[in-house]
Design brief:
Layout (H helix, E strand, L loop, with lengths): L1 E5 L6 H12 L3 E3 H10 L3 H10 L7 H11 L9 E4 L5 H13 L6 E6 L2 H10 E4 L5 E3 L18 E2 L6 H15 L1 H8 L3 E5 L4 H12 L2
Parallel strand pairs: 1-3, 1-4, 2-3, 4-8
Antiparallel strand pairs: 5-6, 5-7
Bound molecules: BIS(adenosine)-5'-pentaphosphate and magnesium ion (MG).
Length: 214
């Protein structure tokens, strides 16, 4: 099963993609996580990506498309995958479709997690990410057992550099301008499924399982 997660920054794409990956035993491919790992490791790609990410801007298409097209052809993707944060522009979606078509494959579902902008700002300020394994928490909605310490690996938690309120606002503007048009793109190809992302995260997941099948 090949799934794309759509939704604004902070809508819960990563939270739900991890649950989908675990339940359906397919890889979770997050371009944001890939860039953050590259930044942490000081790679050339990381250095380039960071200048855009810190401003709330999208990384240029040419830095992301080949990376994802290569990733989805790896052995662990043969039964499917869940893409989180890609595609984010119409050219990215077209490049992905073209690459899949060559392989005789196609996307099965584009799950659009709907959350209004008002809710987003509130969520981002409370998000905490693990420096070790990248697990995501929220100080109110999904707290760790010990404050500031990752439940999964014991490393410390941080506020992401791009979760400052002014950068979140910029990311929302970029989302509406460049990424929201993908909703129509996938509606036209018949794979779009909307879910209400404002409810409890387990209820969001239940709605997604209804769509994907148990
Ligand atoms: P990326 O890492 O993809 O960030 P994003 O899209 O802005 O999304 P987030 O990760 O911020 O939010 P999310 O939807 O995953 O929400 P989460 O589950 O964490 O990208 C970062 C940057 O990298 C981009 O700005 C760009 O520069 C670059 N980039 C990445 N991909 C790119 C691409 N393809 N092209 C170009 N540039 C690219 O949830 C948020 C918080 O809410 C958490 O604290 C969570 O615990 C909480 N929460 C989740 N669900 C609920 C719920 N139902 N109720 C209450 N709280 C909830
Ligand atoms: Mg995410």
């Amino acid at each position: 099963m090949k799934i794309i997660m759509l939704g604004a920054p902070g809508a819960g794409k990563g939270t739900q993609a991890k649950k989908i990956a675990a339940k359906y035993e397919i890889p979770h491919i997050s371009t944001g996580d890939i860039f953050r790992a590259n930044i942490k490791n000081g790679t050339e790609l990381g250095k380039k990506a960071k200048t855009y990410m810190d401003q709330g801007l999208l990384v240029p298409d040419e830095l992301v498309v080949d990376l994802v097209v290569d990733r989805v052809q790896q052995e662990d993707c043969k039964n499917g995958y869940v893409l989180d944060g890609f595609p984010r522009t119409i050219p990215q979606a077209e490049s992905l479709d073209a690459a899949l078509e060559k392989l005789g494959e196609k996307i099965d579902y584009a799950v659009n997690v709907e959350v209004p902008d008002e809710n987003i700002i509130n969520r981002m300020g409370g998000r905490r990410a693990c420096v070790g394994c990248g697990a995501t928490y929220h100080v109110v909605y999904n707290p760790t057992k010990v404050e500031g310490v990752c439940d999964a690996c014991g490393e410390k938690l941080i506020l992401r550099d791009d979760d400052k309120p002014e950068t979140v606002q910029k990311r929302l503007t970029v989302y509406h301008d460049q990424t929201q048009p993908l909703i129509d793109y996938y509606k036209k190809s018949g794979v779009l499924r909307d879910v209400d992302g404002t409810v409890d995260m387990d209820d969001v997941f239940a709605a997604i399982v209804d769509i994907l099948g148990a």
